[in-house]
Write a structure and sequence with these properties.
By secondary structure, the chain is an alpha+beta fold. It has a 6-stranded mixed beta sheet with strand order 2-1-6-5-4-3, covered by helices on one side. It folds into 2 domains: about 45 residues; about 100 residues, Nuclear Transport Factor 2, Chain: A (Roll), CATH 3.10.450.50.
Length: about 150
């Protein structure tokens, strides 16, 4: 008679363990996916400056201007302009024509949505410049709101 109870307790114990193990496994899976999506979000927010830096380094005003907001501020060597995207494109194109970029490295980045900024070092046309970028982070895209180029 005692053996029958032992089997019942063993079955209850095993079925309880299965439920607990399933709960633990489900919880671990949920935590893994939560951290994965958080990590991906953080990475995508930081990556906003990677293509921008690439276009500055290559002096590609066409591709760089695709990141410009419809209206923005552009400050090139102390000449400040509040202008349209098309005007800003012409201004940066003229700068790249006068100072052909050799290298560009982002030295510092900070901020959090909706505004992030980065400071980079540009070597162009035999001169060194500090470039400051302010990027508006939105659901419909990321746009450069302000671009400043200062001679070091």
């Amino acid at each position: 008679m005692l053996k029958g109870y032992g089997l019942i307790f063993a079955e209850i114990y095993l079925s309880t363990n299965k439920i607990v193990m399933r709960s633990v496994l489900f919880s671990l899976t949920a935590v893994f996916f939560a951290f994965s999506s958080l990590s991906a979000q953080t990475k995508s927010e930081q990556d906003v400056f990677v293509p921008i830096a690439k276009y500055i380094q290559s002096g590609d005003s066409e591709k760089l201007s695709a990141w410009f907001d419809q209206n923005m501020e552009i400050d090139i060597l102390g000449t400040v302009n509040d202008c349209s995207k098309a005007q800003a494109k012409q201004i940066i194109k003229e700068f790249f024509n006068n100072y052909s970029p050799k290298s560009f490295v982002i030295a510092y980045r900070s901020g959090k949505p909706p505004m992030k900024y980065a400071i980079g070092n540009l070597n162009a046309g035999g001169s060194k410049f500090r470039v400051t970028l302010f990027v508006k982070i939105q659901d419909d895209g990321n746009f450069i709101q302000k671009l400043r180029v200062e001679k070091e």
